[in-house]
Amino acid sequence: MYLSLNCLKDFIKIPNKIGATEIADLLTMHTVEVESWRLQADNLKQVVVAKVLTVKPHPNADRLRLAKVDIKSGTLDIVCGADNLIVGQKVAVALVGAKLPNGLEIKETVIRGETSFGMICAEDELGLGSDHEGILVLSDDAKIGQELSAYLALDDTIFEIDNKSLSNRGDLWGHYGLARELSVLLKLPLKSAITNFNEDLLINKIQDKIEVKLEEKNICSRYLAVKIDNLKIVESPVWLKNRLFSLGLKPVNAIVDITNYVMFELGQPLHVFDAQNIKKISIRLSNKDESIETLDGKERLLPEKTIVISSNNEAIAIAGVMGGLRSGVNENTKSVILEAATFDPVLVRKTSQALNLRTEASIRFEKSLDPNLPIIAWQRSWQLIKEIIPEAELSTDLVDIFPEPPIAKEISFDFSWLKDRMGYDLSRKEVSNILERLGFKVGIEKNIFTVVVPSWRAVKDVSSKEDILEEVLRIIGYNKIRSNAPKVAVQFNLIDKERILEQEISNILSFSANMNEVYNYSFVGESSLSKLNLNGAHYLRLLNPLNNNHTFLRQNLLVGLISNARLNQANYNEFSLYELGRVFLPVAGVYYKNYMKSESRLPYQGKRIGLLVANSQSIEAFNQLKGIIKLLFSTLSPKYLLEFTVPEDSLSWGENKMTVKIIWQGMDIGYLAIVNREVANNFGLKIQVAVAEINFQEVFTLCSQISTRLYEPISRFPPAIRDICFVVNEKVLYNEFWKELINFSPLLTKVELFDVYQGENLPADSKSWAFHLSYQDQEKTLTSTEIEKIQNDLVNYLTDKFEAKLRAL
Known about the structure:
The chain has 809 residues and is an alpha+beta fold. The chain folds into 6 domains: 2-33 and 162-185, no CATH class; 42-151, CATH 2.40.50.140; 199-401, Phenylalanyl-trna Synthetase, Chain B, domain 3 (Phenylalanyl-tRNA Synthetase, Chain B, domain 3, 3-Layer(bba) Sandwich); 409-479, Phenylalanyl-tRNA Synthetase, Chain B, domain 1 (2-Layer Sandwich); 497-704, BirA Bifunctional Protein, domain 2 (2-Layer Sandwich); 720-806, Alpha-Beta Plaits (2-Layer Sandwich). Helix content is 27%, strand content 28%. It is built from 21 helices and 39 strands. The strands form 10 sheets. The protein has a 7-stranded mixed sheet with strand order 27-30-31-35-34-33-32, with helices on both faces. Residues 588-598 have low confidence and may be disordered.
C-alpha cells in the first residue's frame, strides 16, 4: 500500500524538522513495516515543460515527424511519432540523461538519419496514467522550462507499506488510520476525519425515493445508499489528480475519482451506480449460474454464495469486489446512487479468490471494517462532490440499514498484572494516556482498569487484556524494554524411578540373559483372542480401529509375543524375546486389585514384562525361561525370595502341568506357562513356547522397599563346600524345603540344588534332593568341627520338620 505524506498532513500537522526517514522508522518500530520511501518528483527529474515551435514531416519515415521545441535555455530537435503534435502546444520533454518511471533512459539518438535530442512524452511514459494514444498536452499556463514535477505540484513523499503487516489492522488501510498512529507516536493532535463540514449539505431538496432490502442480514453488517442528482461528469481538479497519481491510481472522472480518493483517505471502499432505471436495490446471495459483466468488460460466472447488489433481480455489482458495467458511471450519467457498506469479509475473500479478482476494495473488505466508518465516508465523499460539482443535489434521504449495531467491548485487568508483564516502569496515568490517545476509553477504580475498545479496533483486533498489553508496549517501543533474564530457582530434574527400573530390567534381559526386545501394537483382534480361548466382551473396543485385527486394547502381552514367535520360527529353532509394555483394563469386567482401591473411573493402564522362550522341547523352554526369571530377580535383589508355586486356577491357553505362579517376597507378581497344543495349533506354532508375564507395578513396589545397596567386600576367608542329599515324601514342596535350608544359619550362605531323583532304591512315594551347601564366615576360617555341628543341627531340624532322611551320595 502506498502512503502519501501530503495526505497524512491533512489530518496531523507534522513539523518540517521531522523527515521521511524518521516517519518511516517510527511506523516500522511501532505500527507497520515501511519497506521504502521516495520523493514523488524523483520520477520526473530532467523532464521539463517545452513549447512546440515547428513540426514537419520526417524525410525518411512517413509516420515520424521532426519537431523543434523551446525549453527556455535553448531549442531542441526531437523526432516524434505522435499524431496529436501541433505547433504552439505546451508539452512535457524528457531531456537527454533523464530516466523515466518505466525504466527508459533518454539518450541522444539517430532515428532514420535524423538526430533526436530528447523525447516528447505520453502520459503513461511519465507514470501519470495509462494513455499512450498521443503526447501529454499541458495547459497554456505552464511555464516554458519549468520542471514538470513543479508544474504538476508533485512535491509529495510516498511511503510503501508492507501489506502483510496490515493483515489484522483493517483500520490502517487508509491514511486517517495511519495518521492516528503517528499522532500518538509524535504526541500531536489529530484532526477530524471531516473538517469544515456544513450540515446544510445533508438537506434533501428533491423528494425522491430509493428502496433498499437486505435479504440476509449476516452478509452485510451495514448498508448506506443515497441518490444524487444534477450531476455533470467532469474532469477532476489538478489537486485530486495529483493525489491519485501519488497513490498509483489513474484519474477517471470526478465522481469515480472522489470515491477512490475517499477509500484511500479513510479506508472505506465506496461505489457509485448510474441511477437510471434503479428504483430498488437488493443485497442478496447469487443465484445458481448467475453471471455479470464487470467494469473491466469481462463476463463472469458468479461462484456460490457471492454477495451481489441487484436491481430488478439483475446483478449490478459484485459486492465488495467490483461493479457491473451496465450500471457504471459514464459521460452521460446525470444521477448516481452512492453506496457505502461493510460486507461479510469471509464471503468477499472467497469470491475474490474464486474469480481471481483482487481489487483495492476487496482487500479492505477482507480485513473486517468498522461498521461505523460508512457514515463518515459517505459524508466526506458528498462534501468533495459539492466542492467539485456545486450544482449536485441530494434527491433522497440517506438509507441506512444497520441490523445489529455492535455493542461496545469492555476489557478489565489489574494494573499490577500489566506492570508485571511489561518489564518497563509506567504509571497508571501514563498507561491511561497511551490508551486514550489510541482511541480507547479508560476507567480506573483503585487498581482495576476498565477499557472500552474503539469500534475501529473491536471488529477482530483487540479482544483480550493481552492485546491491551501489546498496545501499550508497542507505543513505548519494544526496543526500550530491557532484556532481563527471568529469575527462576534452579531445580534438578525429578528422578523417574519407574523409568530407571525399566532401563535396569531391559539391561538385564538384553545383556545378561541375551534376549531380544520387541515392540508390539497395543491393539488386538477378536480372532486372536478366540485363538487364546479368551473372551473379548470385557476388552476396551476402539471407535476407529486400524483394521479388523486391531479392534481392542490389549489386556496382556501374550498375543503380540506369540505372533512374534510364529514369524521367527521359520528362521530360528531357539530364541528368546521380551517386551515391556502397557495393558489396558476397563473399570468393569477385568479388575486390577490396587487400581480398584482408587476412585478413578478411567481405564487402568498398567505396565507388564512379557517374556517368551522358544525351543524344540517344552521342558527345556520352561526351564530356560524359569532360569531367566531367576537371573532377573536375583540381580534386582539377591536377598528377596523368589518362588514358583502351583496356581489354583488354570490358564485358558496354558499347559496345566507346566503352569506356575511367580511369587517374589511373598507377592504374586505373575505367571509362567507352556502354551498348550490347541493354542499353538491355532497360531500355527510348530515349536514349543514358554511364556511369562510379570506385573511391573508390583515389581516396582517391592524394589522401592529395597534399601540402598551398599558395597560388601568379599570375605577374605574361604567357603567350605559340603554336599548333602535328603529323601523326603513326594508331597513336600521344594520351595518350603529350600526356604528352611537357606534360613537355618547365617553361616550357610548359599544353597544350590544339583540333583533330583525319584525311582529305584527309593520308596514309591519318595524323592531325593541333592544340594551343594556353602558355609562361610566374614571374620575367620571355619573349622571342620564347627561345620559338622551346624550340619548335624540342620539334619536334625529337617528330620523333625519334614521327616527328611539322609541318603548316601
